[in-house]
Design a protein that fits this description.
Order of helices and strands: HHHHEEEEEEEE
Strand content: 25-35%
Distance between the termini: 57 Å
Number of helices: 4
Number of domains: 2
Number of strands: 8
Shape: elongated
């Protein structure tokens, strides 16, 4: 649907550009005699309007060619001086009304949204370390730990500095060759700090996958071999 609408818009604007070129040459002075003697700047100024409203201007050109107005009355000659005087008065009105409209818009603007709540701190770590793994995310060394307390499990990843990895997300996968698409989503880890995420009870062997939504690929893998509780601290 979007592609169709864009194609229709492109055709409409192309016809508008073509109409504007023809209208500048053959129709502008007939529709508005006041443009007699107007320079190139004026023509450039009205061209976007001609392109955008070309069906209306084409209809007005046709009415003018037939000697009729939009209301069916016969066109009366209008002097360029009279039209320019009207345009001058209209410009003065706009110079007065536009600042008032800006002041009103500023005064009536909605209140800013309330501040967002602070990011919650990571939960406290479980006391036992089942395994530790390290990997590089670009040039930043990262350390991940698999933590336990009874059947409860956590994965912890320490991020010493901001990662130059767009959209850094952490997943937990089981088995060799695990991919984010078939893994458990844990959360975002792009900000510096220590991030901890709960895992299913009894989790042992598996891997934490650092995935970049910007790159569309896994940029670091932390493999845990399922060490028994009481392993490395």
């Amino acid at each position: 649907m979007i592609e169709t609408l864009l194609a229709v818009l492109a055709v409409y604007l192309a016809l508008g550009v073509l109409f504007a070129l023809v209208f500048h040459v053959a129709g502008l002075k007939k529709v508005d005699p006041a443009v007699e003697g107007a320079g190139l700047f004026f023509r450039l100024l009205i061209t976007p309007g001609l392109v955008g409203l070309w069906p209306l201007m084409a209809a007005q050109w046709a009415r003018t060619a037939a000697g009729r107005t939009a209301f069916g009355a016969t066109e009366k000659p209008v002097s360029p001086g009279g039209l320019r005087a009207f345009h001058r008065r209209l410009a003065m009105v706009l110079l007065i009304l536009l600042p008032l409209a800006v002041v009103a818009a500023v005064g009536l603007r909605p209140a800013p949204p309330p501040p967002q709540p602070a990011v919650l701190p990571a939960p406290p770590p479980l006391p036992q370390t089942l395994a530790t793994a390290q990997a590089l995310a670009g040039t930043v060394p990262l350390t991940a730990r698999l933590l336990a307390q009874g059947a409860a499990r956590q994965v912890e990843i320490a991020v010493p500095e901001a990662l130059l990895v767009p959209g850094a997300l952490l997943y937990w996968g089981e088995g060799a060759g695990a991919k984010p698409g078939d893994s458990l989503f844990l959360g975002g880890v792009g900000a510096p700090g220590t991030h901890r995420f709960p895992l299913p009870e009894g989790t042992g062997k598996g891997a934490a996958l650092l995935y970049s939504t910007g790159h569309g690929a896994t940029v670091a893998t932390f493999a845990f071999d399922g060490a028994a509780p009481g392993g490395r601290d």
